[in-house]
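Hi! If you just cloned this repository, the fastest way to understand the data is to look at a raw example. We've pasted two of them here, unedited. The first protein comes first, obviously.
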Amino acid sequence: MISNMKDCKIRIDVSRGSFKTVAAAARSEKKVKWFVPDTDADAVTECYAAVELGNGIRTLCRNADRTDAAVSFVVPGGKLRSATLQIVLGTPSSNPRVAALQDAGGMRGVSHSEGYLILARREARTRILYIAALTRNGVLNGVYRYLEELGLGWTSPGCIQAAWPKRVVFWKEALHLTEAPRFESRGFYIGSARHPVTEDLLVWMARNRMNYCAWPSTHPALAKKLGIGIMAGGDEMHLKFDPDHIFKKGKTLYEAHPEWFALRNGKRDRWPGVICVSNRAAVNYLFEQIMAFVMQHAAWLDIYAFGGSDTGKTWCECRSCKKMGNAADRYLRLVHEMRRRLDAEYEKGNIDHRIILRFEAYDCNDSLQPPSRPFPKGFDMETTQLEIWPIRRCQAHPMDDPECRELNLLHWRAIQGWHRKFKGPIIQGEFYNVSALADMATVFSKTMAADVPTYAANGVSGMQYMHVSPGHWGPRSLTNWQLGRLLWDPGHDYDSMLRQFFRLRFGPVARQAERLYRKLDLATSNIMMIKSVVAGNLNWNLRRNYGDYAAVEWDNAGGLPMLELFDFDHLRLHRPDDSDGRIGNGLNNLDDIVKAFEDISAGFRGLRKQRNLPAAAKANLDEDLTLVTYTGLLIELHYQFALFWEANRYGNRQPGPHKARLLRIAAKLDRFAFPQAAMGASRVANALERTNLSAPLKRAFGYGSDGAIARQEANPGVII
């Protein structure tokens, strides 16, 4: 056994290709070719792995006993030199020692392109540690796994955290790990012009062995070095078929060609993405726009996502379109043609690699329901992938829970239908931080721990979720970190996995923080219903019945039918007398959720006051408290608005106190500004606009028109 000591000498055996030094190779991702065999490309990634390994070892030694390990690099194939430990990095093609190990049968079990071997051996009186793989990506994965074995971890971008080991064991005789990922595609839907992917985020993904990102347009070469595939596209029919696009002679696309748009209720629908699939000219125009985009980005593109509109208004009702079958049948015709157009460009030599095509089964545009007819003749299921997106799912129940009859059961039946019909790779999408959930202190730990093994058992080959912000994660750090673990190995023990996370992130207060996170999991699992259903129904009622009037006439005289605020049994205002207040993994009434957040916020404030906290742990607690406070205020705003609504609608209590309370909460949210790293922060002035209730507040009370003063005076991350 070798542990940290003052005289520790570690030599890292790695190929630097044609570069002068290991450090130079590690920084040269923009100088090599990534889509063709290139030994220098291998050297770039493997040398970067060596640098990461050296830095990690030094960090561990400093944290454990405040000593520095002497780490140096040596050329592969030379004589073993005097060292405490020699670490051999590489593949059989890049490192002669790894080739010799493979020839001797020492790499049995390493067959996956991203898998690795970590093996301790003695050779010529020298202790050797092999981190070997079949590809450069496998080598990098192996380095990060070895550093985790030593005690390092990465719970959020830009940080290296140690589980505070008293002693670091670099080498032990019995060390022998052979591992490979269960899911082929593992990552996030990130970025846009408003939220560009950062270097720190890409590095965090690699350290947690994720390999897919949509889409890092700002750092494509770095993504390639880290083994992260790049996807572009998304709601492409919505984006590329725009009725307001100036087409010819000053006319918009819709003005020039209304017949290209979907026939709905007897009229051609002027809405983005609603194409008449049977109109050949319309289809050709759509693909011209798409192919222009693809060719512009083909140099870095691994995957193109060809999705429909996410508005629910996608499919034409004309006679010719109806003859093609249901929404999925028509969509598959377009997908098939898209695949053929990509292949044609590749065969012409205009693209130097095959681009994977993904299409999206999405419940908001009816394509989540599987096709009713056979796939188009010749449909390519090898380089075409299916993404499944059940956006209105329940997070309080596992996806396959038969008790979730209102939501998940319907989704699960549709998903199973696609699995029976599509035999190519299937990517499961999730919504852990999108739209209604953005910037909230959400934790879906228990549900995720149930869902990911279920997806694996049902043949899913990849998984991603929308959306990941470039920073300011707070409690969502657990969501992101846990997802990386489960996508690599769905069999991870849940409790031990969580204990590792909290040791890394919170050090001496790990146990207390874990208890608070478990309460958060319970309190936020039903959050989709709060922000999507309650806020949505409030907006609809006020908008459709009272227009833009500042004062609401609550008798609804002459108005449209009112929607009940709580039209799902998943969420109620009050706890029923015969209920314990729980549904699945979460709470299902606002009374209990509001009380839970009062306790959680108090718990985080108490942890912050503890003395002698490491700086990293304190910073993490501060970030967590900011988002927990915001989320608690947001939920109470919904709660008080619902009480106010109920009092007016049914006359069962006085509405005045609820109005006064909700306006006080609104004022606090009006003075809260999100850090710019948060998802959506650049699109809103403050937290009040992120609640989905600013419009009802304006309509009901005239509140919000003068909020600019508060916004100008706001301090980021501070609630007054």
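Ok, and the second one:
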Amino acid sequence: MKKIIKILLSFISVIVVIFFLIILYDLSSYDSSYVNRSSFTLSENNLNSKRIKKIFKKVEKTYYILGYKFFDTQKEFWKIEDPKKRESLPKTIIIPAKTDNFLPGTKIDDIEKNYSNWMRSHGGYSSMRFSSLNEINKTNVDNLEVAWTYKSKNIKKSIQANPVAKDGLIYFPTPDNHIVCLDGTSGEVVWEYKVKRGFVAAKRGLLLWEDKKNNVLKIFFNNDDQLIALNAKTGVPIKEFGKNGIIKIGSSPTTPTIIDEQLVVGSIRPAVEVYDVYSGNLKWKYYLRGINRNLINSRDFKGGSPWGGISSDNENGIVYLTTGNAGPQLVGVKRPGKNLYADSIIAFDIRKKKIQWYFQETCHDLWNFDIAAPPILTTINKYGKRIDVVVAATKLGNTIILDKHTGKLIFDFEKKLAPTSNFPGEKTCAYQPSVKTPEPFSRNEFKIDHVTNKSKDDKDFVLDQVNKSNYGFFPTHEIDKFTLTYGTWGGAQWAGASVDPYKNILYVTSNEFVHKFRVSGSFDINKKLEYGHNYYDFKTQTLDDLDGYPGITPPWGTLTALSLNSGKIIWQVPLGYFEDLKKKGLPDTGTLNFGGATATAGGLVFAGGTLDKLIRAFDSETGKELWSHKLPYIGSAPPTTYKANGEQYVMIPATGGLVLSFAYPKLVEPGNAFVAFKIKK
């Protein structure tokens, strides 16, 4: 018997050794272009072989089943958090602001070399979305009229990229997956390039770049897992770039940037990827997430990817990134800890190939509170000095302002003690942001007095939903019980904000919208983790009244002007209205919006994206609405202003709204229009 056992154990040992040798061999062929990631870390994402991945998952599942039943370590892992352990902690903590030892601030005119030509979506490398053009101003804006309308061939998808413009030509993606170049004066097509595949080409923007070496103006954009380069004059692919103008990248919806003749891409791997701007050859990649180095339970989750966008300080070789939430969403039992670098602002040194600094807004995110828009590079007047800063407008309604060089806070950042979780195995962070200054531009914590007062029946209907749900300051989830939060579609979304660098004022469109999340089912390690999925089943709804309107008091959408110097709100106005409510005497409710705002030197702020289909112009000093025009479809991206043939134009994509259609399917239709305006003569 002993001999049989000995032979059996020897056989098992040989099998185990062979298995691990195979794994090590598989790992050794892993992508070695990462400058900070070991090829020999035993992580599922490091495995190339689908068969080995399958075996790895089965081993992990067996480990969890056996461990939970027979070993105290697993039982301990799935215990409920003890709230008493937090009772002794301070109720609030303050991260103090930096008040001295600043480097000399950059001259305003040097942040962007040209505020009139937009060579990159979001208004340039700084993402300020500000134009120095002032021919259209407060005195004549009410004379704007439609100059031309362009419509793509088919209606398919919503466009979230604001157009770029140079020398009277305008460039943008279309719903039928074309990149087009139009004459800025007439709207006539100069060229069209058909993108052969992909979800939405140039989903979040385009980049124009003057190749002085070859005397060619080029246009670059991401198309899912491709980066495409075209001749901006002809629309013909740059043949020497990759394979006929196309290279393979880690999937990315955002606009690339260029530093030192290197294309920089933020991919959902998550990583910073760097390519040669002429050939498209990959130079290196940097992995933006720590790796769990445990032998088992070593899954490496997506999340923290820089899908919100990139800005860059090209002189100093630094890119600035905003990152998404860690995955899987809502339940974080398989991703314990802070989940760096999710929900963060990151300064990355391209020349040194390392993170210079980072700042995380939300710790161990269970609510989808990612920072969705690119950070803005500008300067402000503070502490008697001109200071270079990075500004991020967030889903929580916060405006985070950091020293560009050090990442230190310009204003005190307050955190409040957060609740523990009743969810088995969940370990929440003790503190979460509760920012007082700069003043939040939207509500970020649902309270009972936010419930609608539209009518008694509506109020009772909403209260019944509220009473069956968790809510409050960073509420945690429970099985089969709804959790109410602002933020998922609230605050600032992917359009982000616009900054007037001369006035140091931020203009931001935002939403106040309550989501209902419910986690259900039981832990299933075999569940396929596609986008938006989890090891548990979950449902998401909106907190609505009896008529389908938001179940909270208005405003539901706003445009806010905020002083970056003082952190105070200068003005705030509702943005948009519902036609039916307007007829009933409730015109100033605001609506859910995803269009974004653009500020100009003409003293104007242009904004679209509301359910009423209007594009509006506001007085940048007072918030007074000066002009509006009904679009064929809902505006879906920030307006672009440009100059052509000596005249200033304002142009906006009007292609409906993907997220808006989820909330209001009867009010939103997909569109295919791009409308330009100019002053009538």
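That's it. A detail worth noticing about the second one: The chain is about 10% helix and 30% strand.
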